Amino acid sequence: MLVPVIAAAGAVVVAVIGYFATSRNDRRRREAEARLKYTERQLEELYGPLAFLVIEGRHLSERTKAWGWTPKQLKKVRGQAMQLLIEDPELEVRLQPTVEEIRRATARPARRAL
């Protein structure tokens, strides 16, 4: 008669321990996900504009070389771009790349196996 009671009590103890362990792991996972989401948002808000400037700077450099623009012409275009940003401050926000676009633009090419 004592063996089934001990077995049942053991099962209850194991179930309670399992519940608390699962609960703790779920809480830690949610906290880690929240930290990751917060970090991604921070990176997007900080590095999004920086990456935009770097990527656009590279593209502009390539285009101006290909088009044969002079520094004087480039200065004029920059002034026009700044005027557009002054007139419409949201333009810069709409043009910012997403985190995924930044990753694709800055990804290193895959190495080929020898």
Features:
mainly alpha; elongated; 114 residues
How is this structure best described in words?
With 114 residues, this protein is an all-alpha fold. The chain is 85% helix and 0% strand. The protein has four helices and no strands.
- Number of helices, where a helix is a run of at least 4 consecutive DSSP H or I residues: 4
Elements, N to C (H/E)? HHHH
Distance between the termini: 71 Å
What share of the residues does DSSP label as strand, in percent?
A: under 5%
Rg (C-alpha, Å)? 28 Å
TL;DR of this structure?
The protein is mainly α and 114 residues long.
What is the topology?
Blueprint: H1 2-67, H2 71-87, H3 90-95, H4 99-106
